[in-house]
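Standup notes
- DV: blocked on the single-chain target, sequence here:
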Amino acid sequence: MLPRGTALLGNPILNKGTGFTERERDALGLRGLLPPRVFPIKQQVQRAIANFRKKTDPLDKYTFLSNLQGRNETLFYRLLEEFPEEMIPIIYTPTVGQACLEFGAIYRRQRGLYITIKDKGRIAEILGNWPNPDVRMIVVTDGERILGLGDLGAYGMGIPIGKLGLYTSCAGVHPYYCLPITIDVGTDNPKLHEDPMYVGLPQKRVRGPEYDELIEEFVTAVQKAYPKVLIQWEDFGNTNAFRILHKYQKRVLSFNDDIQGTASIAIAGILGALKLNGGKLVDQKILFLGAGEAGTGIGDLFVEAAVQAGLSEAEARKRCWYVDSQGLVVKGRPGKLAEHKLPYAHEGQFVATLSEAVDAIKPTILIGVSGMAKAFTKEIVTKMAAINKQPVIFALSNPTSKAECTAEEAYTWTEGRAIFASGSPFPQCTVNGKTFVPGQCNNVYIFPGVGLGVLACEATQVTNGMFLIAAQKLASLVGPEDFALGRVFPPLSKIREVSAKIAAAVVEECHREKFAQLPKPADVEADVRARMFQPDYGEYI
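- DV (later): unblocked, structure below
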């Protein structure tokens, strides 16, 4: 039964504000609680976008949208649907990074669940406090590695909130099904211990068996409470991210977006770049700056793609080289290598710097996933241009302040020959009379469609094959009009169309791999589209 009166107005999923009709106002106890004029959603959007554009500071825009989401989710998502290129950089990268840094100062109202190390033994009870019993999509973080900003602890809640906003706005996952969660085990960021606004536990991080027991209890409780749920692990530190993914990926419907989603969007970008420069996947040699979860995740998916294209697994791995904080990753390098780096420790001479590695490896593709701002210097980019007619340079670190180089630098230093993409958006620029619109290599193109597809067929497992299919489908959607601008991704204005097609491709892959529980519909894409939430007001009476 629908709530009435102020209870209805206080429910952001059901509230229409001034959009309630005259009949609804009489039937639902709203008469007198609203201004007398009825405004259809189209006019509400006009008011909202005008007020949004009056804000000049990105964080003020973020706060405006957060407040709107907190009172009227349909209007919030309608705004995102109609103006994605303006809204996505605000609700997610790059602005969400600043929002996380200032999360305590801008905190206004409850959204999502906080589960702390002090709640061991009570997680099932806490899940029971969430008002919606049929959760299908959880994005969860422990806040240890928020974008390129490091350990932000409970301030990292901005990431699950933002990601779930993208699930709904970009792929039509109904907001009723979505639940953001932060697991707070403390933070090793001493500044937060002294921050009077900090909303989390002001203590050092709990690690080891106690941490693992909390995650185990969390997974068990979630599976029992929400048997159809998909868990997206988000922004965990490297060690925990790999361990959690490998431990649970076959036991519970789950994936890690930093590892698998980032890999998928990067492979899509590489495939798009090869369409642009005429190269072949099997001929590429990739040099990564950064050997964490994002970098090795890209490498792993590249290996799958290259094997599919004809290389052996060993040959494919030898196409991927890594520079970490100690230098080039090679066999016999002094010190112990982390386990996830071992498959990419090849025979070769150790060099200490990225510049030396470019000389030694002569890569066709340079990918930055390091969080090291300005690491792609003029010297390095110029070397890439000397080696390659059209060097592929992806500066993927987020937020914008952490990018390895800017779009303008990449284009200028290569005399307009670079094929460039970045994790955060950069404005268009003109070099040698040609205007470039740099593509954003943003996971938003991938994870919403993958999640929608997995939920649409009630899959029991998420596999790397699904992310490879998503990458290939995305690359197929890049057209001549994009290439003319040097862009290897479709514009964000097409994001819902992109997500629908990726979701349909994922459903097909789920059936091929026999992980789908629902029967395959006659028209997969039509079935996917029918499931997508449309941000419009329905009639309540």
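- Follow-up: The two ends are 12 Å apart (CA to CA).
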